[in-house]
Amino acid sequence: MGWIAVTIRVALIGNPNVGKSLIFNNLTGGRVHVGNWPGKTVEKKEGRCRHRGEDIQIVDLPGVYSLTAQTIDEMIARDYIVKEKPDVVVDIVDASNLERNLYLTLQLLELEANVVVALNKYDLAKSLGFQIDVEGLSKMLGVRVIPTIATTKEGMQELLDAILEASKQRRRGSTLRYNERVEKIISRMEQLIQEDKLLAEAYPTRWLAIKVLESDEEVLKEIEKSSQKERILALKESLQKELGGDASVVLAEARYEFISGVLGKTVRGAKPLTVTDLLDKALLDKYAGIPVFLSSMWLLFRFTFDVSAPLTSLIEMFFGWLGTLASASIPNEQLAGFVVNGLLGGVGAVLTFIPPIFFLFFGLSLLEDSGYLARAAFVMDRIMYRLGLHGKSFIPLLLGFGCNVPAVMATRIIESDEDRIITILVNPLMSCSARLPVYILISSAVLGSYAAIGVYSMYLLGIALALIMALLFRRTILKGKPSPFILELPHYARPTLRNTALHMWERGSLFLKKAGTIITLTMIVVWFLSSYPWGSHLEESYVGMLGRTLEPLFRPLGFDWRAVVALFFGFLAKEVVVGTFGLLLGAEATGLPEALRSQGIFTPLTGFAFMAFTLIYMPCVATIAAIYRETNSLKWTLFAIVYSMILAYVVAFAIIIVGHLLGFA
């Protein structure tokens, strides 16, 4: 009889910006599966590794500050630990900020999870002058504590050893104890809960007692099913009065009191003035902060545009060569037309924009890993709050520069429904990477030396419109004030090339997958509609009929029927706009920008208006689906579609009118 291999299940958890993703990548070595949590649109990352002959499955839980279950992220993390009961929970803490990070550690210990603490950024803590008694910290917490430096992979083998050791030593209840007054009250509630055998078998009773006292909504739902429901709720009211004040605040103070006692015995050294402190004096200044942020974004897009240009030209030449080869070697006229115009002219035109998209993600990853993007959120909060947006909205909006789909999903970090819906509604106004090829194509064709400024202006226009629409929504359909924004700023760090490249690939590969599926299928449809009835002139084809029918609606904006067709199919995926132009104009050696210029489809003014319309009009199908899933409302989904179409037309028309008044053609 053969042995069945037992997989050790490990959950990684920690505050945002503690290096959790880097440790996950270090442990799994890139062997990662990405999906969604059951019933949620939240991304789930799983990986595997082998260590000393043992198979280890690692689940990367969302970054959270606590397990209070007020946000979807917190709910997912807590539910996984409570219900799935992983063999080991690795809590990654920032060694340079232990007071804040150990709060989550205590909540994990309350849950009686089998915890191993990864004391990450250990080198940073030492450089700040902290001397940490790791062994003493381990004894006081009652768990293994392993110093790690994720950027250099130091401590990874020791962490894996600790995981194996912990997996063989299951915890027996929590040894964590707070001050005497709080402990007496927790004990009285726990004794009553233990009388319900079903509750006692399903959950740690001490943890239940704490959560009942904190009036945790999810736990109180479980209490509603208890045979001791009335007695538990009556005792809850009584004990909360004995605690005095808000029970959740009293328990939070007890946790910080415990942490203070632990750190007083295990950590020495005062924090000196650091480079981070000096940089923040400039970057977080209320006058200099916003200009620095805008300058950083300008440099990012200048970098994206200039560095990628030679690679784009090489890819364009490659597809031109393939087109010439296909035309000469495929005898069947229809098949040759499909390959040259449908695939190489359509999909090929889109793929020429791989370099700028990947360089954009590379630049964003550098800013994120360095710690600057968190500062940008802090700086922008001052404006966003006045205009009706929650400070946390900045994070999903910033993610929108990459892709609006995960950006809409990221709004789950916002507690208030009103704040969340406003953020979802304005998120599609942020220029995702799918729109970048359209901007580059049009600006290269008609804006000449001002092409980079034209691209950058679209990002600024998107930000401005998002803020204006948020203010309008806040004062009309979703009245109220946004909640205050509390953000912990990480220390500045030197990004690693490996991690930055990995982030670039994770985000950029989504574009390649889209090119291989949605874009290719759409281009096949567009090719068919532009080729049939077979032998007819392009304007007499099905796609020509469609464009001519809709053209009068867009004539005030200066768009001809080909531009209208590109926009029509662009609702599936914005990259399709470029592919459609490539197909309609044919594959030419001079390239697509030259084809647009030579055929006079756009003037500088109408081209700029077209870019703005592409920015604003209907979100792509995937984003629409994400909006529906996140709001669970057909009303808000339809509203997002309708208002964006109206806004796109109004803004594009305003550009044309103002442009004519200023003397632009």
From TrEMBL:
Keyword annotations of the record: Cell inner membrane, Cell membrane, GTP-binding, Ion transport, Iron, Iron transport, Magnesium, Membrane, Metal-binding, Nucleotide-binding, Transmembrane, Transmembrane helix, Transport
Gene3D superfamilies: 1.10.287.1770, P-loop containing nucleotide triphosphate hydrolases
Membrane topology: Multi-pass membrane protein
Residue stretches spanning the membrane: 342-364, 394-414, 448-473, 515-535, 563-587, 608-628, 640-664
Binding site for Mg(2+): N25, T28, G29
A Pfam family it matches: FeoB_N
Residues reported to bind GTP: 14-21, 39-43, 60-63, 120-123
One function term, GO molecular function aspect: ferrous iron transmembrane transporter activity
Protein name: Ferrous iron transport protein B
Natural source organism: Infirmifilum uzonense
